[in-house]
Amino acid sequence: MSSQEVETVSTAADKAKLAVAALLIVGAIVAFYALSKQGPLAQWAALLLLLGGAVAAFLTAEQGKALIAYGRESARELRKVVWPTRKEAGQMTAYVFAFVVVMALFLWLTDKTLEWVFYDLILGWKR
């Protein structure tokens, strides 16, 4: 993450761009159903065209630019990740599997011990 703090101020133009994007989304949905008699090609063309306009309007607003910057910074951080080798991944998987088996045996043993204590010793129920 960047050490610089960015303070964003939402202007009237940004609010208008977001409102236009929202109206284009609603218009896309309305157009999709209104054009049902024209056939699926017209429906999907209108839907995709209006949704594309909504995305374009959103990406020109300050929030859209911030989203793009966040995506770029995330990709930059992802390139810094040191991924485990195949051998290390296999070893860690084996450790997790062994731990699960040990915990399953422990819980089974605890369950049987408590069952023996409560039913055989305290209540005297013999099976």
TrEMBL record:
GO terms under biological process: intracellular protein transmembrane transport; protein secretion; protein targeting; protein transport by the Sec complex
Example of a GO cellular component annotation carried by this entry: plasma membrane
Coiled coil: none
Location of this chain's protein in the cell: Membrane
Pfam families on file: SecE
UniProt keyword list: Cell membrane, Membrane, Protein transport, Translocation, Transmembrane, Transmembrane helix, Transport
Top-level lineage group: Bacteria
UniProt-recorded Gene Ontology molecular function terms: protein transmembrane transporter activity
Principal subcellular localization: membrane
Membrane spanning stretches: 18-35, 41-61, 89-109
Family label: Belongs to the SecE/SEC61-gamma family.
HAMAP family noted in UniProt: SecE
Subunit composition and interactions: Component of the Sec protein translocase complex. Heterotrimer consisting of SecY, SecE and SecG subunits. The heterotrimers can form oligomers, although 1 heterotrimer is thought to be able to translocate proteins. Interacts with the ribosome. Interacts with SecDF, and other proteins may be involved. Interacts with SecA.
NCBIfam families hit by this protein: PRK05740.1-1, secE_bact
Function: Essential subunit of the Sec protein translocation channel SecYEG. Clamps together the 2 halves of SecY. May contact the channel plug during translocation.
Name of the molecule in the record: Protein translocase subunit SecE
